[in-house]
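This part of the workshop introduces the protein records we will be handling. A record pairs a protein's sequence with a compact description of its fold. As an example, a complete record with its sequence and its structure tokens follows.

_____
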Amino acid sequence: MMELHLAFPGVGNPDPQQAPQRRRKRAQVARACGSCRLRRIKCDNNVPCSNCVMNGADCSKKSAPSAFTLSQAHQEIASLRQKISQLEGELQSRSETSTGSVSSLTLESQSPSLKIPTPSLEPTIPPQNGGTAPRQYWGGVHFCPSRSPNSLWLGPSSLYAFTQRLSSFLNVKLNQEHIPHQMLPASASDDKLLDRPATGCDFFAPPSGSSSNGVYLSPLQEEYFLNYFWQAYHVSLCPILDEAQFKQHYQSLLVAGGKERKPSALVDIVVAACMQYHISTLPLASQGVLVEGKDALVAGRWHYWRGQTLLTYELESPSISTLQCHLLCAIYLCGGSFHNMMDTSMALTVRTAYILGLHLDPPSTLPQAEREMRRRLWWSVWFMDSRANMKLGRPFMISESHAMPALPSDSLDVAALSGSTFVPAAEDTTWLSFNLRQITLYRVIRAAYTAFYSTDFHLQEGQTIWDRPDALQTGALILAQHTQHLDAWCESIPDALKLKRQDPNSRPFSTDGARVVFEQFAPQWLQRQRVLLEHTYHHVCANLFRPMISFSNHAQITWTSLQEQLATRCAAHAIALTKLTHQILEETSLFDGWHEAFYSQWNAVMTLLGFVMAYPSNNTSTSEAKSAVRLAIAVFDNFGVKFAVAASASKIVQGLCAKIETLAANERTAGFLFDGAQAANMGQYPPLYGGDAMSWENLSVYNSSNSGVSYPSDGSNGHSELDLLDMAFDIDFWNKVDMLWPEDIEVPS
């Protein structure tokens, strides 16, 4: 009753002595001023009103009031949307009736300067179906790896779709039907990945080294591998762990006088990733029992699976540690060439990030160190999602339709709170600067990627942009408009993260082929960041411009169209990546065991082979591309000393080079592609590969004692001329999924 009396005076405690009084009528005001309406107080008819005079405010009584309420805001938004629609309609009608002037834009590709026409408005193609049907996916490929009984879909930006286009082109040129076949037949019963062990393995037993139950490390051995994490993944991929907190957490797990440790999913996946990386730096003969006679890419699989089992119990109530585990699992699977499993792991990572609310900017009430860690976690998830789906050509799992958290800071203060004690590289550069610049690079690339692949080219069912010259040219115009953003990104990189050149006239991130200079006394983590930043730049640029390599009408070579200029830029980035990778492997150990460098090189060499086939004319770019292919073979030979799949890549490229040279020789002899003068000049350029044509018997590329697998004959009298392309398809998906599963575990059939 007391609360009622205080809230409503006169209610619940009436005064019988008080006589009722007639309520005075409130003076009406025509319109309150803006300040009074905002503060929701009474206003009078004076101008300025008494409230504004008293508070010193600006008294405004405009005829068009601002939106101070929710309903007024909705009305204002609707009005603005209507105006925007009207303006867009007028703009569209003008673009259709006006011929328009086309300005000239200089594309500073840091290789030869390209003059690119760019329209004043976004180019459009007249719709063929009324523009009412939703856009369809185009250019994808259903691909069945030789070690899987099921097919998978990969989009047009993937290397697999490009390789399929190259394969179809060669089919036509060789005048034969090529039917892909399984070179390693596999049955569904062999894939026991999703089965759980019935007996024979206790995932929760403390690790005590090699045993009949598996290959686990002792805490002392784990310490050896964990030290590689901070110099590799931590500084060069995703800074998602607090080093000081992780080491403190690890110490808290030790029991039995430090001889054993308690189970931890986070520790297990970090150990697995470090084993995969470090063992891949060793020669095959030195990798020892830890790989169990398998490839180094599946080293640490016991720790990986134990961590997966522990993560199962965290699915309903995930934590930051759960997110870190999922993200590191995706990195481990990607390194082992399990790309579909990586894609699935990334889906779990993205959903966990949303569950934890990382998509919202952290509140200011949190400590600064925690705010920055949450931002780094979100943007690491975004980065991995962008990288994986641009590589596989699949839709992004993180939509950018909503605002996202602020980018993580790389300031000196934030670096000091990160838990790591790396010395700043410069006044404006810390160990966190690499991560920030890598994210901004992918933001530029993803914007261009989205603009290109989300454009409605008005294709008919089954068509691709390579079937429509006008669509291909429109795509070239779209990509050309984003090149200036790439150039601006290159200029924004601090000097401490740039690789210097031996040629003083050469610039960092250029495609001129100048050799780089490695600073002798710079710490390894900084050298790795410099190398990876430029290496990643060339890799994503080559992928972005690769759709411009067209195998249609290849005989009509003009070298003047925008599409072919961008195709040349694609090849220039692939050549620059190959030269950089070769020099790094020859002069440093920075890429030893770094699987991403191998896959980027494989991507580059297949791109160059396609470029040579699409544009075989007498020009400097084709000659440089051939030289880079020969250099890539040496790169694969270097990688092949450490893991078997790289050795197989070298042999596949050699075989493809022999096939392409044979085809080119036949066409020159028949005069199919070139006139007499061109055919005579072709002799001055070296062939793709100087070795003898390789027979099938010499191409048993997986016949390695370390890999434990080989390619048997399919029982036919002869093999297809393009069996090598089947192998090329399988390089990224070469591991069998059951290689991750321990053999001595009894699994129900």
Summary: DSSP finds 24 helices and ten strands in the chain. The beta strands are 103-107, 114-118, 141-143, 152-154, 210-211, 214-215, 254-255, 260-261, 500-501, 516-517. Residues 203-397+404-420 form one domain. The first helix runs from residue 2 to 7.
